[in-house]
Specification:
Elements (H helix, E strand, L loop, with lengths): L1 H5 L21 H4 L9 H9 L5 H21 L8 H6 L1 H10 L7 H12 L18 H14 L1
Helix pairs in contact: 4-6, 6-7
Length: 152
């Protein structure tokens, strides 16, 4: 495992890939994120968010995340066939992030659609993704409001 993690050929960098992204591109502001950067940029970005993920803060979230996971697993009884990606692994992080940002349950369908457009765009769709440029605008306002609630 250590060998694989240290192997630069297994990098997420587009410069190290044969084809880069296939069939789509992200706006520069969205393209530079923890998921698709390598050191030193990854290290810089990680240091910016690491304070939000201290052991104490993560422990504080444990019950909330467990409750969301329990709800998702409980809902599986109603499905004829269960797909763990569709019914648990996909919705769990999106739901946690949505709740952390303060997006109400009524905003769930839009938030999921925005997330899908950003993380898994359809390369066969020729027109630009019109909702992508609008996505970040409401979220920072919500996040700032939640931060003010915690600090003030």
């Amino acid at each position: 495992m250590r060998t694989a993690l240290a192997d630069s050929r297994l990098s997420v960098s587009k410069e190290n890939s044969y084809n880069g992204y296939r069939g789509f591109s992200l706006p520069p502001a969205l393209d530079t994120n923890l998921l698709n950067t390598d050191p030193p940029e990854h290290t810089r970005l990680r240091s910016m968010v690491s304070k939000a993920f201290t052991s104490r803060r993560v422990e504080h979230l444990r019950d909330r995340v467990q409750s969301i996971a329990d709800d998702l697993v409980g809902a599986m009884d109603s499905y004829e066939r269960v797909d763990l990606m569709e019914h648990l692994a996909g919705p769990l992080p999106i739901t946690v992030i949505r709740k952390l940002l303060g997006v109400p349950d009524r905003g769930r369908p839009n938030f999921r659609a925005w997330t899908d457009e950003l993380l898994a765009p359809d390369p066969d769709r020729p027109e630009p993704r019109p909702r992508c440029p609008r996505l970040p605008a409401p979220l920072p306002r919500r996040a700032r409001g939640r931060q003010a609630d915690r600090t003030g």
